[in-house]
Structure formats: structure tokens, C-alpha cells
User: Fold this.
Amino acid sequence: MLDAICRYDETKPITYSVFKFQKLPDGDIEKYRQALVCPACAGKAYYRKASKDGKAACFGSRYHQADCSEFKPSPAKEREEQHAIEVNRLVVDSDAMIIDFSRAAKVAKAKVQPKADKATNENVAVNSSADITPAAVKADLSKSELAIAQPELVIDDDKAAAQTRIATQGLEKLLHSLLRGSDLSTSDLWVYTDEKYRWRAKNLFVNFADAVPTDNGAPRMYWGTISHTDKERLWLNPAETKDVGIPIDMFSSSLISRFGLQERRDFEGAGIILFGKCFWNKAKNRKIIQLWSNDVSRLFISKADENE
Assistant:
């Protein structure tokens, strides 16, 4: 994208060319970049500054409509569309889904031991090392007391449980499907985050724009896109909203080794999904989404396609 509309002032939207936008003072760029939209379909857009190795500054969007004139097919986009198709099929054909957090580790360049969370939430126990198997889930489907979401009818017949169709999926395909508009975030599919806790998908997957602090710090799967980081790379700022921050200082080095995020530009426009808790800061004017136990296996980042 060579142009983007800035809606920082909704009464006076301004169309910027990327050449004009990159010449703005740094303070204005930081102020306006979360208010950018595609000029053709109004999908949320991002700005990526020029890279050290010569890549030009650009605008882009992970939310283009399929018929948007700015949507340019590429191998990366085709792959994401295929992921959305696969997940939609999973939603229709499965009775429950297990999130396999270990699948995200396949993109790792080096194994990194996650740091322990200093303030482990006492109200919701999550075992990040649990070995979840279809057999365990089939047995668990008969236990309605384990449902964290709205209480609903569950299978309590052994024969029926044995026929339950259990799917397993990793974070990468889940993220790409959500970015491409799959039905996952509105479905009633049971989703297991470990062998004990399950949720209706519509209650589990939350876009950053809809994030609100939960009762007792109950976790959710938050997803969306990254607008930018601060200069010290201590925080991620989602593109979908200005009042949410994601602290990464406890595991920033792991993000470099796992996802190849060497410079600030690598974060800009990237898709992200993470299992975490949402709470207010002390001033009650900004919502914080903290990665659960600072365990990077429960987070996935998909860098933006250079052709977006």
C-alpha cells in the first residue's frame, strides 16, 4: 500500500502517501500510526518504517476485504487463507479442539527456557507442561464441572464420548484463520487450553479491540495485530486499540530467537495471539494483557508479509 487514511481526528481524516508519512516528526508518526486504515476497504492498517537492510517504508493491512483493490495475492496470503479454510472445516467437523501450544515451537531458531511468572494467578490453575491427549479429553467431556464458560449440556455417555471427534491445532493456524475472518471466534466449539480447562470458542478468543479485564484474572486467547513497540522494546502496542499494552520485557530475548524479531520494524504489522490475562493499570486508564506465566510457548507472532 502506498497510501493510508489517518483517522486520528475522525472529523478530519487525512490521506497520507507513505513518502509523506515517513517524513513526519517521530512524535507524529507514533501518534498517528494506530489510527491508519486502508483507503479502499477501511481495514485496520499499519505503518512499517524503512529497514536497516534497505527495505522501503510501507503501509499494509492484515484486515483487507477479499475484494479490496489493495489486497495483493502472495504465497503468504494464500497460506493464511488456506489456514482459515482448515480451521472453518475443523469448527464444523469437530466436537472439541485441543490447542497444541508446542506446535508454535517449530518456528524456533533456538530453544529458550521461559521465565517463571512472578505473580502466578491463584484463581485459575494452568499447567503449561500438561500432556493433553484425545483420550484425556474424551474422558473429560463427561465432567460438566470443568467447564469455565457458560454451563451447557455435555456428553455424559461413555459410548458417545468414545465417538467424540477431537481436533488438535497449533497457534499459527488459529491466528491466521482469525485474521482472515474464520468462524472460530463466534463458534460454540469446546476448546481445551490444557487437559482440565475448556471454553466455548466464542468466550475464549478475544480481539484486542474487545479486551476487558476479567473476573479473578481469568485468562483468554487474545489476538490481533501489532502496531509498534516502544523504543526500548518493553511493550507491544496493538493496532486495534490505543488503550491496551502488552509487556514483553520479561521474555523479549526469547521473541528474537523464536520469531526472528531483530528490530522494531519486524514487529510492525505482525499478527499475534497469546494466552494471557487482562487487567487495569494503577491509573485505570490502560488495560494490560500479560502473557500467562511469561511462557513464550503460549504466544505466536506472524511477521507481516512484505507485499501487503
Remarks:
- The chain has a mean pLDDT of 82.
